[in-house]
Design goal:
This protein has 328 residues and is α/β, with parallel strands linked by helices. The chain has a single domain, classed as Aldolase class I (TIM Barrel), CATH 3.20.20. The chain is 46% helix and 14% strand. An eight-stranded parallel β-barrel has the order 1-2-3-4-5-8-9-10, surrounded by ten helices. Strands 6-7 form a two-stranded antiparallel ribbon. Helix 3 packs across helix 4 and helix 9 packs parallel to helix 11. It is globular. Bound molecules: glyceraldehyde-3-phosphate, 1,3-dihydroxyacetonephosphate, sodium ion and zinc ion. Sodium ion (NA) binds next to strand 3.
């Protein structure tokens, strides 16, 4: 059944677990997530970016999710708009049947340039007003995602005119977070706590201090009723990196956010954990390997099935580690 983000995250908060939110663009990703959720009895958050709607087409994406809900009626599903760059994008998502939207006002409408606090409040408040009127939840974002190791923002780019961002600029300010939530009424807040989008997060193996856990605690203490969201939370599985490169890929050495650190964040108020890169890597590695090892095959269902299985294993591992398994 389709449920709102608020319902799901309230339950997660009451019971002390977190939920992975996986990005979806195609049939295989949707099936991998639903098969994994079914096997471990977890509720599901699927999210589509504007790029996903462009790739699949609005109707195809909508019906893929509807198919998931029809095929697994016992699994609560949130369909969430990821990184809405404007109120218009969020309205389109709501019209498309999404039960939750992210208004990412931390950036201007170009999706690149950091915006002002006032702009962020204004667009987010507008989206909250419209969304709540129709039972749709809203995620906002405050702060600049970027790796503390590199001192660089990624999408929210630290390499721009203003130069490299300082450590403090890369972490969400707890007082601002409280002011933002009060002014906007968001259900969930994405915070900057040391992560960045994509595969290239850290150049060295993490040593247990990737996330700014103390900052998570401070923010949670200020806004205990707002669910915290971690973007850029892929773990960048080293086994899949190796498989990609063993079978013709040329990805550089890189590291992600260790699952144990995410679990620590969940203990301190993180409820939604965004993951896209891990499933991309598993699917690419599985397809590269399948095609290299089965050179006579030309039935795409074979290599797509290999990708689905690889993604499903990661989904199950995250449902179990974050504690959502058993809570459907
Ligand atoms: O944060 C972005 C997500 O990983 C979605 O990426 O815009 O390429 O679909 P995308
Ligand atoms: P990753 O690139 O770490 O998977 O993060 C995805 C994300 O934050 C989507 O909003
Ligand atoms: Na999101
Ligand atoms: Zn994100």
């Amino acid at each position: 059944a389709l449920v709102s983000m608020r319902q799901l995250l309230d339950h997660a908060a009451e019971n002390g677990y977190g939920l992975p939110a996986f990005n979806v663009n195609n049939l295989e990703q949707v099936q991998a997530i639903m098969q994994a959720a079914d096997e471990c009895n977890s509720p599901v958050i699927m999210q589509g970016s504007a790029g996903a709607r462009k790739y699949a087409g609005e109707a195809f994406l909508r019906h893929l999710i509807d198919a998931a809900i029809e095929a697994y009626p016992h699994i609560p599903v949130v369909m969430h708009q990821d990184h809405g760059a404007s109120p218009a994008v969020c309205i389109n998502a709501i019209r498309s049947g999404f039960s939750s939207v992210m208004m990412d006002g931390s950036l201007k409408e170009d999706g690149k340039t950091p915006s002002s606090f006032e702009y962020n409040v204004e667009v987010t408040r507008k989206v909250v007003e419209m969304s709540h009127a129709v039972g749709v939840s809203v995620e906002g974002e405050l702060g600049c995602l970027g790796s503390l190791e590199s001192g660089h923002g990624e999408k929210e780019d630290g390499h721009g005119a203003e130069g490299v961002l300082t450590m403090d600029q890369l972490l969400t300010d707890p007082n601002e977070a409280a002011e933002f939530v009060k002014a906007t009424g968001v259900d969930a807040l994405a915070i900057a706590i040391g992560t960045s989008h994509g595969a290239y997060k850290f150049t060295r193996p993490p040593t247990g201090d990737v996330l700014a856990i103390s900052r998570i605690k401070e923010i949670h203490a200020r806004i205990p009723n707002t669910h915290l969201v971690m973007h850029g939370s892929s773990s960048v599985p080293q086994e899949w990196l190796k498989i990609i490169n063993d079978f013709g890929g040329t990805m550089g050495q890189t590291y992600g956010v260790p699952v144990e650190e995410i679990v620590e964040g969940i203990k301190h108020g993180v409820r939604k954990v965004n993951i896209d890169t891990d499933l991309r890597m598993a699917s690419t590695g599985a397809i590269r390997r399948y095609l290299a090892e089965n050179t006579k095959d030309f039935d795409p269902r074979k290599f797509y099935a290999a990708a689905t299985k690889a993604m499903k294993d990661i989904c199950k591992a995250r449902f179990e580690a974050f504690g959502s398994a058993g809570n459907a």
